[in-house]
Design brief:
signal, Ig-like_fold, 20 strands, Immunoglobulin-like, single chain, starch binding, 240 residues, 1 helix, 6-stranded mixed sheet, binds 2-acetamido-2-deoxy-beta-D-glucopyranose
């Protein structure tokens, strides 16, 4: 897993956009979730103050986003939930500590919770993955909703750049269940970020195992190891 520099992304995006406009009549529905940003949510304990912060750090000490305690101010949304929108580059090698300036979880001298895209936390850790897009609360009639879902982000190697103009399917099994039928479920494509995405409901399962195919001979099964994720993970595969 790696993050690439933004100039490279920009160039590639430009090329791929040009391709799409000039060469491809493909029409797709917009991605089911936001690809530039992601949000985390925290359900505040009742006895905490109303100003909540998320302190985000990396266990790699060279990789601190913001060193000053207490961290980023979170926005109060509804029913005691707070939200913070972040860019993808802050995931997945980071940890988060929530605080009101006096109290904190996890406690002093304990390791933070794993920073996970779209995760909803309470004081015990992650309690679900949100269905919502970041900033959803600007629509007053939309409520925070979460569950045991996998929001999968997948970007294949650019060595097969023509893949970006094709369909991509997620061939997967949930927990110890059966694999879905080949080629799998059609993913949504975002030409701007070149990520394929899909949301999969994991029900009561603790894990998901995935491979990806274009249905025409391209298979990415992670060098025969498949992509395995525990529930409430960063379901993020960037092989660009
Ligand atoms: C940080 O923690 C994650 C998960 O706990 C681990 O996979 C990763 O290797 C760690 N990174 C460093 C630099 O220690
Ligand atoms: C945190 O969420 C879990 C899972 O929904 C729940 O069982 C637990 O009671 C919650 N803890 C608090 C302190 O609200
Ligand atoms: C706001 O949210 C409601 C409920 O999810 C939805 O039906 C409606 O289309 C949304 N409005 C806008 C402008 O997105």
């Amino acid at each position: 897993m790696k993050f690439i520099n933004s100039f490279l992304v920009f160039c590639t995006l430009f090329i791929s956009q040009t391709f799409l406009i000039n060469a491809s009549p493909i029409k797709r529905t917009p991605p089911s979730f936001e690809l530039q940003n992601t949000a985390i949510y925290f359900k505040k304990p009742d006895n905490w103050n109303n100003q909540i912060y998320a302190y985000i750090y990396s266990n790699n000490s060279n990789n601190v986003i913001k060193s000053e305690w207490p961290g980023f101010s979170m926005r109060s949304i509804d029913d005691g939930y707070y939200s913070l929108v972040l860019q993808h580059k802050y995931f997945p090698d980071f940890k988060v500590i929530f605080t009101d300036g006096q109290n904190q979880v996890p406690g002093v001298n304990q390791e933070g919770f794993v920073l996970t895209m779209d995760a909803v936390y309470n004081q015990t850790g992650i309690i679900g993955i949100s269905y919502n897009k970041p900033y959803f609360y600007y629509n007053k009639s939309e409520k925070l909703a979460y569950g045991n879902i996998a929001k999968v982000y997948y970007r294949p190697s650019h060595k097969g750049v023509d893949l970006y103009l094709k369909d991509m399917y997620a061939h997967f099994k949930i927990g110890s269940g059966e694999w879905n039928n080949i080629p799998g479920e059609l993913m949504e494509y975002d030409p701007y970020t070149m990520f394929y995405t899909i949301t999969i409901d994991l029900g009561k399962a603790e894990s998901i195992t995935l491979t990806f195919t274009d249905g025409e001979g391209y298979w990415d099964n992670n060098n025969e190891m498949n992509y395995e994720f525990k529930k409430f993970s960063n379901f993020f595969i960037d092989n660009y």
